[in-house]
Structures are given as C-alpha cells and as structure tokens.
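Sharing a chain and its predicted structure for anyone who wants a worked example. Both blocks are below, sequence first, tokens second.
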Amino acid sequence: MGGLQTRLGPVRTTVSLERYQGVWYEVARSKAVRFEPAGTTDVRSTYTINAAGRFEMRTDALLNGQSIWWENMIVRILNDYNSHFQLSPNSTSVGISEYRIIGLDFDQYQWAIVASGEVYGWVWILSRQREITDDFFLKLTDRLDTEYGFDPRQLVRTLHTQPSLEVQQQQPPPATDPVQTYVTADGMRLTRRTGV
C-alpha cells in the first residue's frame, strides 16, 4: 500500500483554484469510500472561493432517493501547486481529510482525478459533465492503472438519475425542515433531509 500511496501523489503543475471553481460531477469512486454508502447517487461537488478568500466545497447527493450534503473548507494548502490540501468540515474541527489532485485537464478543466485517504487510497474521477463516454472513461482508468498503479476494478461508476442541474450552489433547507445530521466513522458530517 505504501507504494500505491507514493504513486498517488498530487500533480506538480500549478492548479488555478479560480478555474477549479464550479460544479464537478462524480463519475466514479473507489468502492472503499465509506462515507458514500451503497445507494448513493447523483453526487456532485460545488467549489467556491468565499468572501474571505477561503476555498470551500459542498457536496450534494441522493442516498436511497433522499437529499444529503456535506460541506468542507480548505484549512491548509500543503504544496506550492495548489494540488494538495487538507479539508475540514465547516462547523467542527474534527474529520480533517486530505485531498490530492493527481490528474487534471489543464487546458479546459473538464476532468479531474482526485485521491485521498492515507490508508485506503481512495480515488474519484470527476467531470464537468454528469456522464462521460465509455471510451474516455477507459482512457482515464487506463491512466490510473499505468501511471498510478491503481486497479480500475476497485472503482464503481456513479449513477446519475436526475436531469442536469444549474451550475449554482443549492442552499440547505430551512431549519424548520426535518433534518438529520450525523458523523460517519471517518469523521465526515453528513446532513440528510428526511422530508424529501
């Protein structure tokens, strides 16, 4: 596993956080990602730079047809390329996780490959589009295999059942809505809207 972790290092070309902003759809993820359990679909993350200049990430998804979301913010950039940083839930100091951009379309910022997890080597394939062609998916998974030593068989494609959404960050439901908030074993704070 140590060799895999070394090969899943962040890119050494500067990432423009301004261009990285916006909506990224999850195309595939490692089967080992525990905070996205079976039944999680329609996963998308919206990245924004707030008024204080902090980089924030909000992820929306459906879990067995119900809306869930979790929010993180960059608390520390770990290299000079803006490609390796720590994330922390906005409302608590627990659950800090690291985020490595290991592959990126530097020309158009249309796809990205992200890794995390010091032990598990979690990997995500992201795209500006909800779906990518099978041929292009194969190219990205081949790259994971040949360049990073990651077995593509450990990935699961993410199902998208909803029509394309406007490129904007949805607001959480009002406080009066029935909402459940819980923390997973990995320290991720998930919020589930039970009335949907």
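Comments welcome. Residues 37 and 73 are 22 Å apart (CA to CA).
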